[in-house]
Specification:
Elements (H helix, E strand, L loop, with lengths): L1 H16 L8 H6 L1 H4 L1 H9 L8 E2 L8 H5 L1 H13 L23 E7 L5 H6 L1 H8 L4 E9 L4 E5 L6 E9 L6 E5 L2 E4 L5 E4 L5 E5 L5 E9 L5 H15 L14 H22 L1 H21 L1
């Protein structure tokens, strides 16, 4: 039984690593959050109703047409938030899901996050909030801003239970502002939507001279069987709600994001250790891998 579990874990990580044409270096993949979620994601991919391709036609999700039809209204509320300086980075390192995005200026304002409560969204963006509440398959949504010069490094998102939807609101309408998913590039345009599978390697850059504002949504991945759809829904409700992050005081902060503040401080010490002596850092890393492997073997 022990070897079955080890074998399944290895298979799951290899499945994630070799998925698509573009890959992370294997050493990085081993410690990437997508590897820890790999045993769950392999089932998500196996029972997925949508094809295993980087981009999915938007027409496959007809419920999103109401967002497309109302994009000028959504844009107006988003631009008002920018004027109010409400679209911003996490101020207390309590955004477990997107903390690494803030380094070059990426900003967000949560409109919906699974079962978490964000009263600020309903108060400041009533029309967009109401539209999103009317689409049960949209599990999470935010305004996402990418200023000139900002870049998001190549990464995979950890949970395969959703698809990613971007709706251009106020974009440069310029090919220098783009996202690349598994080597295929897409440039945002005002009023146009795109859906992609965020468990493929993707990255984004705004090399233009203008800001980029989009509506960013996680849409529940359609599954082949009802029981698997129910499992997916339960996983999203339990795991992803725990990663909720607030826009401001009064919004819910999930347990994972609360704990992330501790992890963030530890990460600062880790980076200092690496800067002090890369050889010692790598040796420690290998020792930890061997230690975990030995623990699994003897359990």
């Amino acid at each position: 039984m022990k070897w079955f579990v080890v074998g399944f874990l290895v298979l799951s990580v290899l499945h994630i690593h070799f998925r698509g044409k573009v890959r992370l270096p294997f050493g990085r993949q081993l410690f990437d959050h997508s590897s820890f979620m790999a045993p769950i994601n392999i089932f998500m991919h196996l029972f997925s109703k949508v094809p295993s391709t980087p981009y999915i036609p938007v027409r496959e999700f007809p419920e999103l047409s109401v967002l497309q039809d109302n994009w000028p209204t959504i844009r107006e509320e988003g631009l008002r938030l920018i004027e109010m300086k409400k679209i911003k980075a996490s101020e207390e390192n309590n955004d477990a899901g997107f903390n690494s995005f803030f380094k070059t200026g990426w900003k967000r304002f949560y409109l919906k996050w699974y079962d978490a409560s964000h009263p600020s969204a309903e108060r400041l963006c009533p029309q967009t909030y109401a539209l999103l509440q009317g689409i049960p398959s949209v599990k999470a949504a935010m305004f996402a801003e990418l200023p000139p010069g900002a870049k998001l490094n190549p990464h995979r998102d950890p949970f395969a239970g959703s698809m990613r939807y971007h709706l251009g609101l106020a974009t440069p309408n310029d090919d220098r502002c783009f996202i690349e998913v598994d080597g295929q590039r897409y440039s945002w345009r005002d009023g146009q939507g795109v859906i992609f599978d965020e468990t493929f390697i993707h990255w984004a850059e705004n090399a233009s001279d203008s800001d980029r504002l989009i509506l960013f949504c996680d849409v529940e991945r359609p599954m082949r069987f009802g029981w698997m759809q129910a499992v997916n829904r339960w996983l999203g409700r339990t795991m992803m709600t725990a990663a909720a992050s607030p826009n401001e005081s009064g919004d819910q902060t999930g347990l994972v994001s609360k704990l992330f503040r501790v992890s963030y401080v530890m990460g600062q010490y880790r980076r200092r250790y690496k800067a002090w002596n890369k050889t010692a850092y790598k040796a420690t890393k290998v020792a930890l891998i061997v230690g975990v492997a030995a623990l699994v073997y003897y359990l």
